[in-house]
Structures are given as C-alpha cells and as structure tokens.
Amino acid sequence: MERKSTEGFGRCFLLACMLVFVLAASAATDNITPGRSIRDGEALVSSDETFELGFFSSPVNSTTRYLGIWYKVSPETVVWIANREAPLLDHFGVLNVTKEGSIILQDKKTDIIWSSNRTRTAENPVLQLLDSGNLIVKDGNDSGLANLLWQSFDYPCDTLLPGMKLGKSFITGTNWSLSSWKGLNDPAPGRFSALIDPEGFPQLVVRNGSAIFYRGGSWNGERFTGTPDLKQVESSNLFKFTFELNKNEVYYRGEPYPSFISRLVVNQSGFLRRLVRTKQSQSWIEIYFAPRDECDRYAVCGPYASCNTNNCACLDGFEPKYPAEWDHSKWSGGCVRKTELACQNSVFTKYNGLKLPDTSNSSFDASMSLKECQEKCSKNCSCIAYANSDIRNGGSGCLLWFGDLIDMRIYPDGGQDLYVRMANSTLGYLVASKNSSKKKRVAIIVIAVILVGLILGGLIVHLRWKKLRKQVEGGKDDMELPVFDLSTIVKATDNFSDDNKLGQGGFGPVYKGTLPEGQEIAVKRLSKSSGQGLEEFKNEVGLIAKLQHRNLVRLLGCSIPGDEKMLIYEYLPNKSLDYFIFGLILEPHFF
User: Fold this and answer.
1) What does each C-alpha distance from 488 to 474, 494, 521 come to in angstroms?
2) Which of the chain's ends, N or C, has fewer CB atoms near its CB within 10 Å?
3) In CATH, which superfamily holds the domain spanning 19-155?
4) Which parts of the sequence belong to the Protein kinase domain (predicted)?
C-alpha cells in the first residue's frame, strides 16, 4: 500500500514537471535561436508587448496564411509581412533561423516559401523582435545593434514605423520605400509606392507604377514643402522628424514617442495616412493624409502655373499654352512665357507662398546664402529659378532649377519664396500689372466704402422712420382722446374749404366741420412752422384733455396724418370759440 502511494506521488511529480516545462516552452518570448521554431499558432512578442510576430489570414476566414508583425493591442493592424507575394495555403507554416543566420519560412512539405538574405554569417545567430517592431538577426555574442545580419526595417511593406528609414543607401543601393497592398484583403504589392526620390534635390513622392501620383516636395529644414499642414503637428512637440542627406545615404525618419504609437501608411488608393493612438485606446486617429485635394495631384496645372483651391493660374509674365483648353479647365498643358528669355537681359521675379517646384531637375548647395544663390543662377543661362533650400533661421542654402517649373501650388500659410528668371522687358509689364491690380484694389475699396455708406445711410433713415412710426403709433395708443382719420376730417371740412374756414391764428387756421353722425366740430390745423415736436404735441393734448371744464371749449380729439397735427374741438356758435382758440390762454402755451 505504501509502495503504491509512493509510485503515485512520483508520477504526479513527473507530470507536474512536464507541465511546467511545456508552459515555460510555450510562454511568450521575443527571440528564437537555431533549433527552435515558431509554428502557426505560436508567436514572438516584443519585451514591452507592443508588437507580435505570428501567422494570420487575409481575408480573416481564408486559408491563405502570412507571417507578419502587428500591434498586440490591435492585431488587425499588420505593419510588416514576410511572404506577401507567396502566401501559405494551410496552417502548417514553420519559421526557423539557420545556424548561418538566415530566416526561412517553410510549408507542410518543408519547401522554403520565403527566406531572408544576409551579408555574412554569425557564430551564434539570434532572431529577435524588438520593441520598435523591427525583426532582426544578430550575433548573440554582440550585445549591440550596429552589426546586424538582417533587419525587417530594411524591407518595409506599406507601413513606416518610428525609427524606420524612408530613403536610399548610396553605399549598398538599398531603397527604403513603402508599397501599398494590392487590395483591402490582399497584402501583395499594389500599384502605389511611397519613397524619397534622390534625383536632383531629394523629395517625397508617391508613384502609381512609374508615374508620380503625389509629390510631398523637398525637405526645407522643418518639413516637406508640400505638407504645410504638418506645421501644426510638428509644433505640438509630440513628433520629431529627421531628414538626413549625406554622401552615404538620404532618409526621412520619425522618432518614437513614449506615450503613444504612430504609423505612416500608403494605402491601396495611393493616399499617405499618418495615424496615432495611445496604447490604452481602442481606435486609431488620423491626423494627416495626402493628397488632400485636386491641387495635390502631381502637375495638375502643367508647367509655369500654380494651383489654388482647385483652380490653376499662370505665373505673372506667362500665358496659357492652349487657351481653348485652359478655358475649359483643362490645365495640363500649362503656360508659356509671354516674352522669350535673353540670357544677358533678364531679371528675377519673386513669387511668395508657393510649394516649390519639382526638384528632380535641380541642384543644391547647403553652404550658400540667398545672394550667392542668385549670383550663381544669374551666371548660368540654363538656370530658370532659385530659392533657399532651408527656411530655418531666416533661410539658407541654395536650390537651382534647370528645367520647366512643375507642380506648384499656393499656400496661404507655410509656402516659400521662389525667384523666377524673366525677360527684362517683362519687368515693366509686371510692374504695370501690379500697379493696375493696385488701382483695381483701390477702386474696389472706394466703391465698397460708398456702397457701405449708402447702405448705412439707408439703414439709418429706415430706423429713424420706424422709430417715428412707432412713436406715432405709440402716441395714438398713449392718448386718452380719440384719434381721427384724415379722411374723416377732410370729408367733415369739405377738404378744408375756404367756406368752412373760421379764422387764422398765429399757429394755423381753424375750420368748421360736421362729423358723419352730425356733430359740429372746429378743426385747428397746426402750421408746420410751429416747431412743435410729436412728444410735445402729445403732452399738450393730454394736458388740454385734463383741463376740460366749463371755461374751456371741449377737446374732442386729434388727428396726426404723417407730419401734420390737428386738434378737433367741439364747435360752439358763440365768441367763446374765438376767445379760447385764438386767445391768450391757449395760444402762447400750446401752439
């Protein structure tokens, strides 16, 4: 009995040890060495758990399998794929690193589906997924990262991660460029690629096949000339971008930021997208994309023209090459000079706020000032234009153009100055054109001031009329006595006929009249020269009404048609009427 218990305990202990070994073996790791594999369903995880390498399907429920790297918090966001042109067709893929330091991806039949190249061998090769998302092969005896045998950052797919280079090595010939997916669920290389074109002065471009689809422009010390919208992003201090140009390489690179993750993607439609998210959030935020509008399309206006709000215009001193097409918004033919250049009789005209032209036909010298740049361009008859290559600290460096000026646009904020060679005879035209434009602006301003004055004057008159009308209407409402219509008074007095005139006072005539109901009245029609205002008239009528007593003729009401004022009294066939209307009591005080 005791022996069985001992055997049972030994078996349990052995099983527990095996379980611990299996769990330890299956625990997430960031590296493997020769003899260890990553099979479909297993993964490498970077030490800070930002990135994960493993197998995935695209589309999600398909049998096609790819070896890729994605964000652990966002598994659907794949940033790199090893076998994007040769998918596995089952779930039996295996990843190994050889003793020589090569990475191989094999299928169920052990056929090699994909492998890495290498420039040398290593004594103790290690395949490791770094916190940056870079999959590397290094020599385990070398603690640094300077002498890598291979790295995925040298072979980008559609995504540029912080720390990755976009550019070219002039020593090895390696191109660090992005290539879009072929389709939304097809990771194979698509039509669009994003790269730093090293021809002339290096610039950011997106190509559709071999044709330029979008040009971000050359680096001006702060950003690419065609991306002024990034000025706000850069000023936030959340991003730091580096552009390096030397005899060994040229590249653009974004630096990592600890509080969030970021990526630049070229999608299957050719758009560049900058997206960010915190490691705790559930979604990505797009902070920039290009092209943004029709003006961002490459060379949409043709040579010597600039685009502004989806509309093209020739530079001053140039005219449409094909006017008929230009009138129908077909701008690709661009513009030509109104006056041909004569090398020894030319000047330079300054254009402000531009996206600098395509720099593939340019040369540059970072050590020159703008004045030296002008002198150099002036001495070379093939030089068409010049500008500073760096806008920092007031500007420095020299860019010279030797061909047609293509792909310019106007930026209200963030554009640069460009100096274009013009025929000297054109200078007078440009000055006259500018003066004419200035005169037109002055004329427009004068006309605008006059119109505004007329509108304000009309508004003041209208408001005063409304106020007067309101006062009149308000006066009628405020009075305790009836207000008679003018038509009633006109009919009662037979249109103020002389036969009904009772007399004339210092402040107006008095007429006798008969109301429709037969009551006789005396109407005192106040003279306009009396100088009495409406408020004063209202107050005095109210006062007369309150003074109704036997010694005064009874006031029946008033009439206020337009700017006229009339008092309607009860008519008495005796002298008291004359006395009270023309006498000393009423006349001095009320009229």
Assistant:
1) 21, 10, 12
2) N
3) Bulb-type lectin domain (2.90.10.10)
4) 496-591
